[in-house]
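Archive entry. Fields below.
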Amino acid sequence: MSETAEAPAVNEFIAKTVAENDVVLFMKGFPDQPGCGFSAIVVQILDHLGVGFAGVNVLQNEALRQGIKAYSDWPTIPQLYVKGEFIGGCDIIREMFQSGELKTLLTEQGLLS
Amino acid sequence: MPMPAADLEAHLRDAFPDASITIEDLAGDGDHYRARIASSTFSGLSRVRQHQLVYAALKGKMGGELHALALETSAT
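PREDICTED_STRUCTURE:
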Protein backbone atom coordinates (compact mmCIF):
# COMPACT_ATOMS: atom_id res chain seq x y z
CA MET A 1 0.00 0.00 0.00
CA SER A 2 1.35 3.45 -0.82
CA GLU A 3 1.98 6.03 1.88
CA THR A 4 -0.63 8.29 0.28
CA ALA A 5 -3.29 5.65 0.75
CA GLU A 6 -2.26 5.21 4.38
CA ALA A 7 -2.09 8.92 5.18
CA PRO A 8 -5.71 9.42 6.35
CA ALA A 9 -5.48 6.40 8.67
CA VAL A 10 -2.16 7.64 10.06
CA ASN A 11 -3.54 11.14 10.64
CA GLU A 12 -6.53 9.66 12.41
CA PHE A 13 -4.25 7.55 14.62
CA ILE A 14 -2.12 10.58 15.55
CA ALA A 15 -5.14 12.79 16.26
CA LYS A 16 -6.70 10.09 18.43
CA THR A 17 -3.45 9.45 20.30
CA VAL A 18 -2.83 13.11 21.17
CA ALA A 19 -6.50 13.56 22.13
CA GLU A 20 -6.62 10.56 24.44
CA ASN A 21 -3.28 11.06 26.20
CA ASP A 22 -2.29 14.22 28.08
CA VAL A 23 1.40 13.86 27.27
CA VAL A 24 2.56 12.04 24.15
CA LEU A 25 6.13 11.64 22.95
CA PHE A 26 6.61 10.50 19.35
CA MET A 27 10.07 9.02 19.51
CA LYS A 28 12.52 6.53 18.05
CA GLY A 29 12.45 3.35 20.12
CA PHE A 30 10.77 2.87 23.47
CA PRO A 31 10.88 4.97 26.67
CA ASP A 32 13.00 2.34 28.45
CA GLN A 33 15.11 1.77 25.33
CA PRO A 34 15.33 4.91 23.17
CA GLY A 35 16.75 4.34 19.69
CA CYS A 36 18.28 7.79 19.29
CA GLY A 37 20.12 10.25 21.53
CA PHE A 38 17.64 13.04 20.90
CA SER A 39 14.70 10.88 21.93
CA ALA A 40 16.65 9.72 25.00
CA ILE A 41 17.16 13.31 26.16
CA VAL A 42 13.44 14.11 26.10
CA VAL A 43 12.61 10.84 27.91
CA GLN A 44 15.14 11.75 30.62
CA ILE A 45 13.63 15.21 31.03
CA LEU A 46 10.07 13.86 31.34
CA ASP A 47 11.22 11.18 33.80
CA HIS A 48 13.13 13.77 35.80
CA LEU A 49 10.04 15.96 36.08
CA GLY A 50 8.03 12.90 37.03
CA VAL A 51 5.31 13.29 34.43
CA GLY A 52 3.70 10.22 32.91
CA PHE A 53 3.63 10.04 29.13
CA ALA A 54 2.66 7.80 26.27
CA GLY A 55 5.68 6.97 24.13
CA VAL A 56 4.94 6.17 20.49
CA ASN A 57 7.72 4.46 18.58
CA VAL A 58 7.69 5.92 15.07
CA LEU A 59 10.15 3.29 13.85
CA GLN A 60 7.41 0.66 14.00
CA ASN A 61 5.87 2.00 10.81
CA GLU A 62 7.30 4.11 7.97
CA ALA A 63 3.90 5.71 7.26
CA LEU A 64 3.71 6.85 10.89
CA ARG A 65 7.30 8.12 10.81
CA GLN A 66 6.52 10.30 7.78
CA GLY A 67 2.96 11.03 8.90
CA ILE A 68 3.93 12.65 12.19
CA LYS A 69 6.33 14.98 10.36
CA ALA A 70 3.53 16.15 8.06
CA TYR A 71 1.00 16.33 10.91
CA SER A 72 3.18 18.65 13.02
CA ASP A 73 4.92 20.38 10.08
CA TRP A 74 8.14 19.38 11.83
CA PRO A 75 10.93 17.44 10.09
CA THR A 76 12.52 15.61 13.00
CA ILE A 77 11.81 13.14 15.80
CA PRO A 78 11.23 13.33 18.82
CA GLN A 79 8.08 15.44 19.05
CA LEU A 80 6.28 16.23 22.29
CA TYR A 81 2.54 16.88 22.55
CA VAL A 82 0.83 18.15 25.70
CA LYS A 83 -2.99 18.18 25.81
CA GLY A 84 -3.16 17.87 22.05
CA GLU A 85 -0.78 20.73 21.37
CA PHE A 86 2.62 20.35 19.71
CA ILE A 87 5.20 21.76 22.14
CA GLY A 88 8.42 21.12 20.29
CA GLY A 89 11.34 18.84 19.49
CA CYS A 90 14.49 18.07 21.45
CA ASP A 91 16.06 21.56 21.34
CA ILE A 92 12.90 23.37 22.42
CA ILE A 93 12.10 20.86 25.17
CA ARG A 94 15.64 21.10 26.54
CA GLU A 95 15.50 24.91 26.46
CA MET A 96 12.08 24.92 28.17
CA PHE A 97 13.30 22.45 30.78
CA GLN A 98 16.38 24.52 31.59
CA SER A 99 14.38 27.74 31.88
CA GLY A 100 11.70 26.09 34.03
CA GLU A 101 8.99 26.79 31.42
CA LEU A 102 8.27 23.11 30.86
CA LYS A 103 7.59 22.47 34.52
CA THR A 104 5.36 25.56 34.65
CA LEU A 105 3.45 24.43 31.58
CA LEU A 106 2.89 20.91 32.94
CA THR A 107 1.87 22.27 36.32
CA GLU A 108 -0.59 24.72 34.77
CA GLN A 109 -2.09 21.86 32.80
CA GLY A 110 -2.59 19.95 36.04
CA LEU A 111 -0.13 17.24 35.06
CA LEU A 112 2.32 17.90 37.89
CA SER A 113 1.48 18.66 41.47
CA MET B 1 24.64 12.62 3.62
CA PRO B 2 26.71 15.58 4.82
CA MET B 3 26.26 19.21 3.88
CA PRO B 4 29.11 21.75 3.95
CA ALA B 5 28.72 24.44 6.59
CA ALA B 6 29.00 27.10 3.88
CA ASP B 7 25.94 25.67 2.08
CA LEU B 8 23.98 25.60 5.31
CA GLU B 9 24.89 29.19 6.04
CA ALA B 10 24.01 30.26 2.47
CA HIS B 11 20.52 28.75 2.79
CA LEU B 12 19.97 30.51 6.09
CA ARG B 13 21.42 33.79 4.81
CA ASP B 14 19.01 33.72 1.82
CA ALA B 15 16.01 33.23 4.07
CA PHE B 16 17.06 35.61 6.86
CA PRO B 17 19.11 38.41 5.26
CA ASP B 18 19.21 40.52 8.42
CA ALA B 19 20.20 37.66 10.72
CA SER B 20 23.22 37.16 12.88
CA ILE B 21 24.16 33.53 12.18
CA THR B 22 26.66 31.32 13.99
CA ILE B 23 27.25 27.76 12.84
CA GLU B 24 29.25 25.10 14.67
CA ASP B 25 30.12 21.71 13.22
CA LEU B 26 29.62 19.67 16.38
CA ALA B 27 31.12 16.37 15.29
CA GLY B 28 33.41 17.55 12.50
CA ASP B 29 31.54 15.35 10.02
CA GLY B 30 29.42 17.94 8.21
CA ASP B 31 26.30 16.19 9.50
CA HIS B 32 25.80 17.48 13.04
CA TYR B 33 25.51 21.23 13.37
CA ARG B 34 24.42 23.80 15.84
CA ALA B 35 23.08 27.04 14.43
CA ARG B 36 22.34 30.18 16.40
CA ILE B 37 20.17 32.57 14.43
CA ALA B 38 19.05 35.96 15.63
CA SER B 39 16.69 37.73 13.26
CA SER B 40 13.95 40.34 13.48
CA THR B 41 11.81 37.86 11.47
CA PHE B 42 11.40 35.84 14.67
CA SER B 43 9.99 38.71 16.66
CA GLY B 44 6.75 37.78 18.40
CA LEU B 45 6.77 34.18 17.16
CA SER B 46 6.70 31.05 19.32
CA ARG B 47 9.82 28.87 19.32
CA VAL B 48 7.98 26.21 17.32
CA ARG B 49 7.06 28.79 14.67
CA GLN B 50 10.65 30.17 14.63
CA HIS B 51 12.12 26.73 14.08
CA GLN B 52 9.49 25.92 11.45
CA LEU B 53 10.66 28.98 9.49
CA VAL B 54 14.25 27.73 9.66
CA TYR B 55 13.26 24.26 8.51
CA ALA B 56 11.25 25.79 5.66
CA ALA B 57 14.34 27.76 4.63
CA LEU B 58 16.24 24.48 4.38
CA LYS B 59 13.66 23.23 1.87
CA GLY B 60 13.24 19.67 3.08
CA LYS B 61 16.94 19.00 3.63
CA MET B 62 16.43 18.69 7.38
CA GLY B 63 15.87 15.08 8.27
CA GLY B 64 17.34 14.08 4.92
CA GLU B 65 20.70 15.54 3.92
CA LEU B 66 21.05 17.01 7.37
CA HIS B 67 20.77 14.51 10.19
CA ALA B 68 21.18 16.85 13.12
CA LEU B 69 20.81 20.58 13.41
CA ALA B 70 20.52 21.93 16.91
CA LEU B 71 18.73 25.26 16.69
CA GLU B 72 18.75 28.30 18.90
CA THR B 73 16.69 31.11 17.50
CA SER B 74 15.95 34.53 18.89
CA ALA B 75 14.57 37.86 17.81
CA THR B 76 17.14 40.60 17.60
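CURATOR_NOTE: Strands of chain B lie at 20-25, 32-38, 68-74.
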